[in-house]
Design brief:
This protein has 382 residues and is an alpha+beta fold. It is globular and about 80 Å long. 55% of the residues lie in helices and 14% in strands. It has a 4-stranded mixed β-sheet, covered by helices on one side.
């Protein structure tokens, strides 16, 4: 591993801790997670190590570090299990961050430490059957009734939705024609008013992806996260964190695929010599490595800009997501091609990585939507 100007010795220690945990605990469980096992115990263990939400202050269950620490930890976990890294990044970079910065003191005291420690899981409930990429068009409604809010609607593609103890719900609190200017966020505890159904997906199995129906769920004013009708700004803040972490997941997937393919070409022979001696194979691997290193600098720079509160962060968050997700798909496809039939078999880790990689081009904003956002930044800054 090279040294990177965006990272310090502290980040190297975080990487070492995350890598050792991934090798010792996550790698042996990766196939069970891929078969559908929700990794709740591993989330708790990561919480105890300060890896689940390292950028949250220690008094609230984090490690008191920075966002770069979060990104480095996600990258290392993704090498072993992209599914676990996906749950981790939502819980740490979005939910815990959101509660710390925007929740009422009552909600923060009740939920934040448990969320940062992985003792209780909170799902981010934004997407709906009507609208994924067009989040400003959501139809879930929250209406004031007798001093409380009544929330009803359907959410879809919700990571951890099957197993969550609570949901951070985006709901409309004003006229639909106001779009993003009439959306608020509420923390809704799981109860009989919440109905969940599993959603079967191609990859990132074990993430508890679900459809979540909210049937007249009642919450008090303290459940409001952020200001009334200003929830969409909180959502954008969350998504920029999440997109940077998806960049880290893409890096982890690409690096893991490269390592699997590289090791295979050293031990597999063809035409009387190792595959690694064939120039085309060398070019395949060298190209993946070159692309990975280039994208790594973008992802780390995005995380650095977040820590510095640099106005370039939102743009770099988009770049990190779109470039690293493309890299993940390209790297796993190349690794599978190099490894041939074995790479395509379910005995190969690359087969799992290949399925998981595709999700990174879709979740936290489809890449086409990300590119729309990038273009808007170009019009603003150029």
């Amino acid at each position: 591993m090279y040294s990177y100007p965006q990272l310090s010795e502290e980040h190297s220690l975080v990487r070492k801790t995350a890598r050792e945990f991934a090798e010792r605990r996550v790698a042996p469980a990766a196939r069970r997670i891929d078969e559908g096992e929700y990794p709740r115990d591993l989330l708790r263990e990561m919480g105890d190590l300060g890896l689940l939400a390292p950028h949250i202050p220690q008094e609230y269950g984090g490690a008191g570090l920075d966002f770069r620490s979060m990104v480095v930890a996600v990258e290392e976990i993704a090498k072993a299990s992209p599914a676990l890294a996906t749950v981790m990044e939502v819980q740490g970079s979005m939910i815990a961050y959101n509660l710390y910065h925007y929740a009422t003191e009552a909600v923060r005291e009740k939920w934040l430490e448990d969320a940062a420690k992985g003792r209780r899981i909170i799902a981010f409930a934004l997407s709906e059957p009507c609208c994924g990429s067009d989040a400003a068009a959501i139809q879930t409604r929250a209406e004031r009734r007798g001093g409380e809010w009544a929330i009803s609607g359907v959410k879809l593609w919700i990571t951890s939705g099957l197993y969550a103890d609570a949901y951070l719900v985006a709901a409309r609190t004003g006229p639909p024609e106001l779009r993003h200017r009439s959306i608020s966020l509420f923390l809704v505890e799981r109860s009989q008013c919440v109905e969940v159904s599993p959603v079967r997906v191609m990859g990132v199995h074990g993430t508890g992806t679900a459809e979540v129906k909210l049937n007249d769920c009642r919450v008090g004013e303290e459940a409001l996260v952020g200001r009334l009708n200003e929830g969409f700004q909180v959502v954008l803040d969350d998504l920029n964190n999440g997109r940077t972490c998806v960049g880290a997941i893409g890096l982890g997937i690409a690096q893991a695929a490269f390592e699997e393919a590289y090791a295979y070409t050293k031990r597999r022979t063809a035409f009387g010599r190792p595959l690694a001696d064939l120039q085309i194979v060398q070019h395949y691997l060298a190209n993946v490595h070159a692309q990975t290193e280039a994208v790594r600098h973008v992802v780390y720079t995005a995380a650095l800009y977040r820590d510095l509160k640099d106005p370039a962060f939102p743009m770099y968050a988009q770049l990190a997501k779109v470039l690293a997700s493309r890299l993940a798909v390209d790297a796993t496809r190349t690794a599978m091609q190099v490894m041939g039939g074995f790479g395509y078999s379910t005995d190969s880790k690359v087969e799992m990585l290949y399925r998981d990689a595709k999700a990174t081009e879709i979740y936290e904003g489809a890449n086409e939507v990300i590119l729309n956002t990038v273009y808007k930044f170009l019009e603003k800054f150029l």
